[in-house]
């Protein structure tokens, strides 16, 4: 696992956007796995700025969603599908045809999960999966003690996650669905490159457990240690509990020029 410590959220957004732009130069129709939440927004902004400046070409990129609330009516502004349309596809000028995601409004949730696994495989698998992290160490919506081998399935949110996400629902936890569909940890680990972005002091403990703790289902993000190409990009605040911060800085400062993100 490579841990890159950047100054702030904006610098993290620039770094990851550049990594995506470089990937798209090598593979123009790459399947990009995107995450929701506030953390990845600087990435999408920085990538859109590159598109406007003509330094990134996303025209053939394809977008895959990570997770979704169950039971919100189709088109609900806080459904993750709507959020991805609003924050990723629209600013990048991509059409809905370039998008795949689980159907959180399906009557048969189990069938929707299976259909999404099939769609991911049919699309050739995710080339780069961008991840945020929950304060409890969750990735996607894989809450603590999710199986490290799990596939796309329904999960029940912890009260902590519902409280964290209430800000998107008028601050009202009751409006935050109890259930979600999420790519499983086993599904996520199949992406060719994982990039986890974490910013702010509130994530410092989860980041330390992810990078320096044992691989344990109680911290789902620690599963990244099992992946041959995982990059964790953290700002100074999120890095504040890393014991090996000095080594991570040293390694990044001496990173060979030929090595990509
Ligand atoms: N399912 C999403 C995660 O994919 C995201 O990483 C997390 C953190 O969100 P934020 O980046 O807003 O802290 O929120 C939600 O739970």
Automatic annotation (TrEMBL):
InterPro entries the record matches: Glc/Gal-6P_isomerase, Glucosamine6P_isomerase, Glucosamine6P_isomerase_CS, NagB/RpiA_transferase-like
GO biological process, one term: N-acetylglucosamine catabolic process
Catalytic activity from the UniProt record: alpha-D-glucosamine 6-phosphate + H2O = beta-D-fructose 6-phosphate + NH4(+)
One term of GO molecular function: glucosamine-6-phosphate deaminase activity
Pathway: Amino-sugar metabolism; N-acetylneuraminate degradation; D-fructose 6-phosphate from N-acetylneuraminate: step 5/5
Site (Part of the allosteric site): 146, 153, 155-156
UniProt keywords, alphabetically: Allosteric enzyme, Carbohydrate metabolism, Hydrolase
Enzyme class, first EC level, given as a word: hydrolase
Annotated active site: 67 (proton acceptor), 136 (for ring-opening step), 138 (proton acceptor), 143 (for ring-opening step)
Statement: the UniProt record of this protein carries the keyword Hydrolase: yes
GO CC terms in record: cytoplasm
Domain Glucosamine/galactosamine-6-phosphate isomerase: 10-225
The protein's Enzyme Commission number: 3.5.99.6
Keyword Hydrolase: yes
Regulation of protein activity: Allosterically activated by N-acetylglucosamine 6-phosphate (GlcNAc6P).
Function: Catalyzes the reversible isomerization-deamination of glucosamine 6-phosphate (GlcN6P) to form fructose 6-phosphate (Fru6P) and ammonium ion.
HAMAP family, A to Z: GlcN6P_deamin
PANTHER family: GLUCOSAMINE-6-PHOSPHATE ISOMERASE
Family designation: Belongs to the glucosamine/galactosamine-6-phosphate isomerase family. NagB subfamily.
Name of the protein described by the UniProt record: Glucosamine-6-phosphate deaminase
């Amino acid at each position: 696992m490579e841990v890159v410590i950047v100054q702030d959220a904006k610098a993290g957004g620039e770094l990851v956007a550049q990594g995506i732009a470089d990937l798209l130069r090598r593979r123009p129709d790459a399947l990009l796995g995107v995450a929701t939440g506030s953390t990845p927004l600087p990435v999408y902004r920085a990538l859109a700025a590159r598109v406007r400046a003509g330094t990134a070409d996303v025209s053939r990129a394809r977008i895959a969603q990570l997770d979704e609330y169950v039971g919100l009516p189709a088109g609900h502004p806080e459904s993750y599908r709507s959020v991805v349309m609003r924050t990723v596809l629209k600013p990048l000028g991509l059409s809905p045809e370039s998008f795949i995601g689980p159907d959180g409004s399906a009557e048969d949730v189990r069938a929707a999960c299976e259909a999404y696994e099939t769609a991911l495989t049919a699309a050739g698998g995710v080339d780069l999966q961008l991840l945020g992290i929950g304060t409890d160490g969750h990735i996607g919506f894989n809450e603590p003690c999710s199986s490290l081998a799990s596939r796309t399935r329904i999960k029940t949110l912890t009260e902590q996650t519902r409280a964290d996400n209430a800000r998107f629902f008028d601050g009202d936890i009751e409006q935050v669905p109890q259930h979600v569909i999420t790519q499983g940890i086993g599904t996520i680990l199949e992406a060719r490159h994982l990039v986890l972005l974490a910013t702010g002091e509130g994530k410092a403990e989860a980041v330390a457990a992810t990078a320096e703790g044992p691989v344990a289902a109680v911290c789902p993000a620690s599963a990244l240690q099992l992946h041959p190409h995982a990059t964790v990009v953290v700002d100074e605040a999120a890095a504040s509990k890393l014991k090996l911060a000095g080594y991570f800085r040293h390694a990044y400062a001496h990173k060979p020029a030929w090595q990509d993100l």
